[in-house]
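Morning. Coffee machine broken again, so started the prediction first thing and wrote up yesterday's gels while waiting. Chain of 315 residues, entered below exactly as on the submission form.
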Amino acid sequence: MTQPPVWRRALQRAIPWAITLACFVYLYTRLDAAARREDTELFDYLARVFAEVSWPAWLALMIPYSLFYFLIDTAVVWRVVSWFNTRIAYADVLPIRGSSFILSILNEQVSKGAMALYLNRRHAVPGWEVGSSMLFIMFCEFFYLLAWATLGYALRRESLPAAFEAIPYMALAGGLFFAAFLVFFRSGRGAAGGLRERPLFRAFRRAAPAQYLVVMLIRSPALILAAWIYARAAGLFGVSVGFGEMLGYLPVVFFGAATPGPMRSVAITFWVLLFPGHEVQMAAFGLVQHNFFIFFNAVIGLVFLRRAQRELFGD
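Came back before lunch.
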């Protein structure tokens, strides 16, 4: 397979860092202005915010949520693989999904590649077929977030920044694209050797419309619980947020978290945008929420790592 040009690969590596740099320049500007309003230095203000948080109470919220998310996310992988690749027990998916969280620190797509490798070696599923299932999961995740973001916009339209008025148009465009996408892959028309018949799209050729919905429904309890958890966690940082309000904000923030770049910088920036007047508190909140989630999931992965290595490579 032909390698992409060097400049294109360099650009692909540079874009996430450019996004991150732009976010942190913006954040510094906003946070420094907030600290000046309080007549204090920025780092002193941040230190005060962190010192006032009840960290045991925060951990009591975040650890159970992270474990619950792990179980839900594993259920999605198990369901899709069982549909399109091979019958596999839910308990057998736990170690490889847990271990792949370690790679999620670097890149979520790399972690899905690790799951594809496991299924290929452990169950002799062709790599392209597994890759198709992972692509199906990512496709469903986009529309799941878009659906919840649209609901969130409907719930909290008056309190969202003007930029979020694009969400209904995105939802309309996404709905039209999804309908055309289903017709394309479910229709019997077209040449057999065309784009639709490529191995990478095997899961989409086999998927019924209801299966897309099932994947979104399996994920939904994690988002509903996240709204409850994040609302209470924000209170520990000194910002009062109701469950309904957080349910409106969270899908939009999770879209930001899916943007490539270290430290989930776009998601942190969204929190600052959404809560003017609480810039420093919400920057601290976003920083610890998203990065704890990443690194605690990696700790879950360490629990399963030895078993996953044994199943992949033997003793």
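The chain is about 80% helix and 0% strand. Going to sketch it on the whiteboard this afternoon.
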